[in-house]
């Protein structure tokens, strides 16, 4: 079976409102269609990924290529776990957890997007909670980082709610524009000291070797 060869297909994270799991090949077009319909309003630019450029098919292909690239390029020294966010069995977005030299550094980076109709309902917070539960409680991470544009108030709010603190800035190029993001950091000490909703993680033990554990 496919899950025997690639155990992350058996990894499932369940939060109070959403389920995170790796979409099967026959499923990946569905979250791509969610992105095609839009992940932010036309007057916003909350992501480094230029979601506003091109047409809906371009946005869908960005999701497909990112999904396939994460699977094809996985190595213990540098991996990215991209998971679909499902609500009542239907995809509403995607999240990712990535790391370099994780067995030594023990730090992860998170990123996410949700389709416009699903924003502002707490699903993004729960999806991040699921990723962080995997990172801290199962992978044994020491810290989690994220980078957020200063005017991306929704993502900034999620990070503050979960206990992230400022950790400097990053500057990235998008075309001819230099974009400044706040770099935010959540440590294991803060994570373990905060109350949070229950999250269930299944199928992780079979994945340990892929993470270098």
TrEMBL record:
Q: Where is the N-acetyltransferase domain?
A: 18-189
Q: Which GO terms describe its molecular function?
A: protein N-terminal-serine acetyltransferase activity; protein-N-terminal-alanine acetyltransferase activity
Q: Which Pfam families does the entry link to? A: Acetyltransf_3 (PF13302)
GO CC aspect terms: cytoplasm
Query: Which PROSITE patterns does this UniProt record tie to the protein?
Result: GNAT (PS51186)
Q: Which InterPro entries match?
A: Acyl_CoA_acyltransferase, GNAT_dom, Ribosomal_N-acetyltransferase
Name this polypeptide is given: N-acetyltransferase
Q: Which organism is it from?
A: Actinocatenispora rupis
């Amino acid at each position: 079976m496919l899950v025997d060869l690639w155990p992350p297909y058996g990894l499932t994270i369940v939060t109070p409102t959403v389920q995170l799991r790796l979409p099967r090949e026959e499923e990946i077009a569905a979250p791509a269609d969610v992105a095609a319909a839009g992940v932010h309003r036309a007057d916003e630019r909350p992501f480094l990924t230029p979601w506003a450029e091109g047409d809906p098919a371009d946005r869908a292909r960005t999701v497909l290529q990112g999904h396939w690239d994460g699977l094809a390029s996985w190595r213990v020294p540098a991996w990215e776990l991209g998971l679909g966010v499902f609500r009542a069995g239907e995809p509403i977005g995607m999240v990712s957890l990535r790391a370099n030299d994780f067995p030594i550094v023990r730090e992860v980076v998170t990123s996410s997007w949700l389709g416009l109709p699903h924003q502002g309902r707490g699903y993004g917070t729960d999806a991040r909670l699921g990723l962080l539960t995997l990172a801290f409680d199962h992978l044994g991470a020491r810290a989690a980082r994220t980078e957020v544009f200063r005017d991306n108030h929704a993502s900034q709010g999620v990070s503050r709610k979960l206990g992230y603190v400022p950790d400097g800035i990053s500057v990235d190029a998008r075309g001819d524009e230099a974009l400044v993001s706040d770099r935010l950091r959540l440590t294991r000490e803060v994570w373990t000291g905060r109350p949070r909703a229950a999250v269930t993680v299944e199928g992780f033990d079979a994945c340990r070797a892929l993470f270098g554990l």
